[in-house]
Structure formats: C-alpha cells, structure tokens
C-alpha cells in the first residue's frame, strides 16, 4: 500500500507568493523606469538635431540620419518627440499636483457632518456634467493662451475627482473603530483627519493621481493639437500630430504616428502605475 505524502504548505506557497510579489514589483517599476527614461532623455540626453530648428530636408523618411524622419518644416521628428516629453509630462504633473492638494483639502472639509459637504458634492456633479475637454478649452480661452493657464485648467478639471474620492473614502474610514477610539480619548477633529483618516487613504489617492496625470496628458495633447495653450514653436506631442495629420494621406505617416505612439506609451505607463497602486492598496486594506 503506497502512502501519499502531504505537501508542506510553506514549500508550495512561499515560492509562489515570492514570484507574485516579484511580478507585481515588475509591473510597477517597468512603467516607472520607462517614464524616468523619457524625462531623462528629454532633459539630459544629447539630441541628434535641434528640436526647434528646421533642416534642409523636409518630410524626409526615417533613415540613418533622421531616425523618425522630418516634418514639413524640416524639423527632426525624433529630437522633437524626445523634447516634447520634457514639456507635456511636467505640465500634466504640475496641474495634477495643484488639483491633488486642493481636492484633498476640500474632500476632508466635506467630511464634516452637515449640509455643506452634500452641497459641495452636488455642485461638483453639475461641474462634471460638462465635457472636460471642452471645459479645458473654454478655460484656457478665457484666461489667455499661455502655458501657465494650461496648468490651471488641468488643475480645475481634476479637482472634482479628488474631492469625491477623498470624501467617499473618508466616510468609510470615519466609521472605523480606531477613529472612534481617537475621538473617545479626546482627539480633535483636525488631528483625527490628518493623523488617522488621511494616512489610510494615501494609496488610493496616489493611484488616482497617476490616473489624473494620464488623463491630463491627453487633454494637453488635445489642446496643443488645437493650437491652444502651448506655443506652436515649443515641442509638444499634440502639435506634432497636428503638423503631420494632413500628410498621412500622402504617405508621410511618420510625422503623426510617432508622437501618437509616445502619447499612447505615456498614458499606458501612468495607467499601469495606477492599477498597481490600487492593487497594493486593496491588499493592504484586506490585511
């Protein structure tokens, strides 16, 4: 009679858990590394050509001299593509950072019991009923066609996201036992908010911040495509697509396709970071 040996759970689950942690870290650090490389190249890498100066060859196809070809003005597409990362990504991050600070503070303020929080949420519902891209175009048009106003517009359209997120998460955390215990020992409302409620929603806020940057990249590209906000002479992915859009039908696809791929890759990276942060936050709350 043969005996069946029971597998030791630690010998089975420990390597599997370690592999899963390794894969999760890889899924987080690969997009972080890609974005870091893009910014490092934009700020520090020697470019083969000036991203703003036209060359003699216009609409040249990709080759050894021009890795991604040139546009109708003779500007090297690769050099301008790399330089655009140093403009679009910092703009998106700057606008998101402003909206994060304002949105978190308003969201925490809306947690106080009373009609004020509900009224704020209802006002934000009305605000978010407008298409955000059209709203961003209107804001920049009203404030003036300047790059600083693009940052302000990005901040304004992202504030409601953070307010609603912080308030909804805060309403759940506020009913936790450790929050009730903090109130029981005499902690002030401000101390409870900043020492007990806010730290326990940091993960989901960071995940939303990464998602907001991805959305902001698309909005900035759309604005520059329309010729709004960013100076036409400054590198920008949206302006590059606008420059090359009319040449796609005549066979010069590289002028618009490469910046479009850059936007896709950047948005994909920020979305991947957001997914991993949400996953990590969800597992931490289950423990």
Per DSSP, what share of the residues sits in E-state strands of 2 or more residues?
under 5%
Poorly predicted regions are 1-12
- Compute the number of helices: 10
Secondary-structure element order, N to C: HHHHHHHHHH
> Structural class from helices and strands?
mainly alpha
Main β-sheet: number of strands, strand sense, barrel status?
none
- Please report the total strand number as a whole number: 0
Integer-rounded radius of gyration: 24 Å
* Residue-averaged pLDDT: 85
Can you give the helix content as a percent range? over 70%
Distance between the terminal alpha carbons, to the nearest Å?
43 Å
**Which term fits the overall shape?**
globular
Subcellular location: Cell membrane
InterPro entries: BP-dependent_transpt_permease, MetI-like, MetI-like_sf
Transmembrane segments: 28-45, 89-111, 123-144, 150-167, 203-233, 253-273
Protein name: ABC transporter permease
Give the SSE map.
Layout: H1 9-44, H2 77-109, H3 115-128, H4 132-143, H5 147-173, H6 177-184, H7 189-197, H8 202-225, H9 237-245, H10 254-286
Question: What does this protein structure show overall?
Answer:
It comes from Luedemannella helvata. It is found in: Cell membrane. Keywords: Cell membrane, Membrane, Transmembrane, Transmembrane helix, Transport. The protein has helices at residues 9-44, 77-109, 115-128, 132-143, 147-173, 177-184, 189-197, 202-225, 237-245, 254-286. With 287 residues, it is mostly helical. The longest helix is centred in the first third of the chain and has 36 residues, at 9-44. It is globular. The chain starts with 8 loop residues before the first helix and ends with a helix.
């Amino acid at each position: 009679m043969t005996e069946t040996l029971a597998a030791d759970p630690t010998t089975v689950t420990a390597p599997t858990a370690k592999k899963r942690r390794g894969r999760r870290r890889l899924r987080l650090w690969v997009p972080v590394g890609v974005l870091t490389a893009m910014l490092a190249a934009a700020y520090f890498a020697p470019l083969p050509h000036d991203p703003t100066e036209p060359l003699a060859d216009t609409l040249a196809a990709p080759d050894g001299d021009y890795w991604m070809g040139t546009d109708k003005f003779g500007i090297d597409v690769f050099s301008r593509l790399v330089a655009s990362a140093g403009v679009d990504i910092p703009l998106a991050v700057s606008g998101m950072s402003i909206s994060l600070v304002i949105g978190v503070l308003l969201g925490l303020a809306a947690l106080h019991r009373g009609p004020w929080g509900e009224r704020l949420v209802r006002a934000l519902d009305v605000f978010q009923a407008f298409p955000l891209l059209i709203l961003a175009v209107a804001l920049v048009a009203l404030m003036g066609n300047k790059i600083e106003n693009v940052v302000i517009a990005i901040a304004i359209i992202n504030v409601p996201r953070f307010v609603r997120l912080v308030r909804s998460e805060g309403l759940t955390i506020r009913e936790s036992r450790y929050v009730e215990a903090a109130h029981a020992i005499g902690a002030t409302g401000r101390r409870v908010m900043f020492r007990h409620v806010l730290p326990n929603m940091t993960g989901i806020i960071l995940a939303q911040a990464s998602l907001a940057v991805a959305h902001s990249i698309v909005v900035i590209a759309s604005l520059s495509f329309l010729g709004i906000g960013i100076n036409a002479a400054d590198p920008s992915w949206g302006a590059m697509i606008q420059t090359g859009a009319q040449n796609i039908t005549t066979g010069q696809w590289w002028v618009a396709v490469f910046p479009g791929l850059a936007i896709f890759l950047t948005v994909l990276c920020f979305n991947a970071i957001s997914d991993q942060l949400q996953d990590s936050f969800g597992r931490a709350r289950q423990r």
